[in-house]
């Protein structure tokens, strides 16, 4: 590498500098690894939703779409981590689950049918 190339590369991160920036604590590394595994799985599911539904914008999912992702990953990863990563409240998640199960206007439809 020439001197000019070295000067240009001085500001760029290298593998060695990246490895130095990682924490030395094993428990911290395990926590980071777990977070990255969950994030990867969520992004894969999000990509699947984007491919299926053209109206879905990556990073701007509705709570219903977030609930779908959580439902598919809930058996693999802890619910608390999924809720934090997708930035959805527990109450919103449980509400969306209820709406999916019963339907948003099922009670209204029953009342109209009675009349």
Note the main sheet: none
Number of helices: 7
Total separate domains: 1
Instruction: Give the helices and strands as they follow along the chain.
Output: HHHHHHH
Terminal residue distance:
83 Å
User: What is the typical, i.e. mean, pLDDT?
Assistant: 81
Percentage of residues assigned to helices: over 70%
| Uncertain segments | none
Q: How does the helix and strand content classify structurally?
A: mainly alpha
Give the overall shape, derived from the CA principal axes.
elongated
Global Rg: 22 Å
**What fraction of the residues are assigned to beta strands by DSSP?**
under 5%
Could you tell me the number of beta strands? 0
How would you characterize the overall build of this protein?
By secondary structure, the protein is an all-alpha fold. The protein has one domain. α4 packs across α6. The longest helix has 27 residues. It is elongated and about 80 Å long. The protein starts with a helix and ends with a helix. 11% of the residues are buried.
